[in-house]
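Journal club prep, shared notes

We agreed each person brings one worked example of a sequence with its structure written out as tokens. Mine is 18 kDa Sin3-associated polypeptide. I'm keeping it raw so we can talk through how to read the token line rather than staring at a rendered picture. Sequence first:
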Amino acid sequence: MAGVELIIEEKKDDAVDRQKVCPFLLRVFVTSTGYHHKMSDYNKGNTPQNELQIYTWRDATLHELTQLVKEVNPEARRKGTKFTFAFVFPDLRQPIYRLREIGVTTTGVKGPDDLKTLAQLRINIGDYMDIAITPRKSWNSKKGILE
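Then the structure, token by token:
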């Protein structure tokens, strides 16, 4: 059996053929305060002012979304800037919105949430994404608190 080479290729369960599958609109709301928007900002058909509209696929990673936000937000490009991601979705029992944090990425630092995909995080088409950006200068990584 000399000369036979076996190549095993791992295929992601949630991989999307981006040439054949149409992207969906993800409405993203960003704050630079380090905190997510208040849920009252989303009630009664309202949304926060600073909206990014991103066309993406279910296999998009948090790292990929971080890169897209950095393209339009120059302050977020600095090493050590933290991005805290959350889904905002309607409560099925009450006429209000709920927030569920889904991960954190940091500019210039590889982290455990970087490769999480929207599909793995169980996004529903129509959910909003809320991203709280915390600049390095206001984040104390040793204490884990805002200064």
